[in-house]
Amino acid sequence: MVFAIHKISRQKTVEGTRIPGIIHNMQYFYNNLDVYEDGMMNCWELVDLEGLKEKLRTGWLVTSIPDGEDISIHGLGNYEIITGSWNYDKDSYYEYIKETIERLNPNLNNIYTISEEEKKLLEQRRIFYSPDAKDFYVKSESFYQTVEGNGFTIFMKHEDCCYLANLVVYKDGRVKCFYSGREIDYEIEEVQEMFRAGTFFTEFKTPTKVILDDFAEVTLGESIYCADPEEKYKELLDIHLKLNGNKTSLEKCRAAYYSYLEDPSDDAREELKELYELIPEHERMYLGDMDSKDGDYRRIIYRPEDKREV
Asked: Coil, strand, or helix at residue 237?
């Protein structure tokens, strides 16, 4: 007789923080390395400390970029590194991450290590974990009330210096800017003017020194491509909508697209055009799949005489 197992599962919240990192996968990607109190790190794959050593050994995770190479910053742009002063090598970066874990978990309780059996099982199932971390702040220690948020990286001018900062909007409309171990609080209504005034920005007119926390100081040149600052602000508003359970500009546009396919009228196409142009430009590619992107949307809106490819 085969004994049946009634399967159940549970989720556990593990807190952590973010530190700078660079993934080298064909090109160089600036990456927020998520470090958790249980000793796990996410560098596009969740690994333990031994796994981190391997990522550093193989060059998947690197601590510097050669002068003249480009750095890609997700959702922000691609920039030439003219010169860089990098503060870590492989060994010191590994120690830096260990120290970060110790700050999160001073007694190093419940540190997780991936066993050989688990590695084999994950390989057998063709699974690798890369969980999306959730931003939050603690509203009240009583009952540990938290407020969820989300955000992106952005360049920021502050006190005559330029930083690569993490800008996070929370469900209640509070906005926090994290840079070089510091934090500034805003209300969401304040932030639009800061984008317009150039406090938050995405490109450089001249070579500019940028501080990447305590990780590096780099001089960046002209962008190969970059998002528009106004479009990044629109993205922040979309994030706030989503946190509050409302439809984003992308979701509204996608719904209008399917409505148009069902009833391809001029009015439906005009509505689709209006909603499409409300989406942040750098987000429009996500309307379709990896191949189609927003191609059919642009055909309908701007070239309605072209036939749809099926």
From this structure: helix
CA distance 176 to 174: 7
How many whole angstroms from its chain centre is CA 141?
28
Burial 67-80 (b: 16+ CB within 10 A, else e): eeebbbbeebbebb
Predicted local confidence at residue 121, as pLDDT: 84
Beta bridge partners of 28: 24, 71
The whole-number pLDDT of residue 1 equals: 65
Tell how far CA 23 is from the center of its chain: 13
Q: CA-to-CA distance for 261 and 303, rounded, in angstroms?
A: 15
Instruction: Tell me which residue of 271, 275, 268, 267 sits closest to 294, measured CA to CA.
Output: 275
DSSP 77-91: EEEEEEEEEE---HH
Give the number of C-alpha atoms closer than 13 A to the C-alpha of residue 279, restricted to the C-beta side: 23
SS3 content of the chain, % helix, strand, coil (to 5): 35, 30, 35
Give pTM, 2 decimals.
Answer: 0.89
Cα–Cα distance list, 160 to 84, 118, 163, 165 (Å): 19, 50, 10, 15
Task: Enter the tokens of residue 10.
Answer: 């549970």
| pLDDT of 308 | 65
- pLDDT over threshold 80, residue 26: yes
C-alpha to C-alpha distances, 69 to 56, 83, 185, nearest whole angstrom: 19, 9, 34
Sign of CA dihedral 283, 77, 166, 134: positive
Q: What is the Cα–Cα distance from 287 to 292, expressed in whole angstroms? A: 9
Encoded tokens for 65: 């970029």
Angle at 173 between CA 167 and CA 179, to 5 degrees: 20
- pLDDT tens per residue across span 151-176: 999 999 999 999 999 999 999 999 99
State the Cα–Cα distance between residues 47 and 25, nearest whole angstrom. Answer: 17
